[in-house]
Write a structure and sequence with these properties.
It is built from four helices and two strands; from the N terminus they run αααββα. By secondary structure, it is mostly helical. The termini are close together.
């Protein structure tokens, strides 16, 4: 499998970036849910918050790389048999929403932590605060980040469900185009 997309498959780089993003998003959600379940003030709770931040910022770095790869890897492989126009439009809207989610959520989180005035550590490196401390703004950004995070469960779930429906019921190559090649 090559690096560039072909007529029937995505290239190896877009495929691996897609599945790495899935793992990162799982990690982000696991970390915040474990954080919320841990006792307040516990070292484990603080560690999960740190992992939530680091994995979230990893999502930001990877989504930027994915946009560059998406633009440079050629056109998307065709779905066979072809899907109706309305499904094509829905797929485009879903991908736009996912990219906005993957780009916006880490930035919102970084802004919220900055407004709180907390240091932001990214795998041992101290990142700059994007804005100055502001308690009211922190509360607002944290609320918006949480609401969009909850919506993310549905967005990601719909994306996965659509891929499975296409694979098992419609029986087209939608999912197969994004699966790693078998030897």
């Amino acid at each position: 499998m090559g690096l560039k997309n072909t007529a029937d498959r995505y290239g190896s780089v877009p495929i691996w970036m897609h599945w790495l993003m899935a793992l990162l998003l799982i990690g982000v959600y696991v970390a915040i849910n474990l954080h919320d379940a841990a006792p307040k003030g516990s070292a484990f709770r603080a560690e999960m918050k740190l992992w939530h931040f680091m994995l979230g910022l990893s999502v930001l770095a990877l989504v930027i790389a994915r946009v560059v790869v998406r633009v440079s890897s050629g056109t998307a492989p065709k779905i066979t048999p072809p899907i109706p126009a309305w499904q094509h439009v829905m797929a485009k809207l879903m991908h736009l929403a996912l990219y906005l989610f993957m780009l916006g959520m880490p930035i919102l989180g970084w802004l919220a932590v900055s407004a709180k005035g907390s240091p932001i550590t990214f795998y041992g490196f101290q990142l700059p605060l994007l804005i100055g401390p502001d308690k009211a703004l922190y509360d607002y950004l944290k609320e918006i980040h949480g609401l969009i995070g909850t919506a993310g469960y549905y967005l990601i779930g719909l994306h996965a469900a659509a891929a499975l429906i296409h694979h098992y019921f419609i029986k087209d190559n939608t999912l197969g185009r994004m699966l790693p090649a078998r030897r």
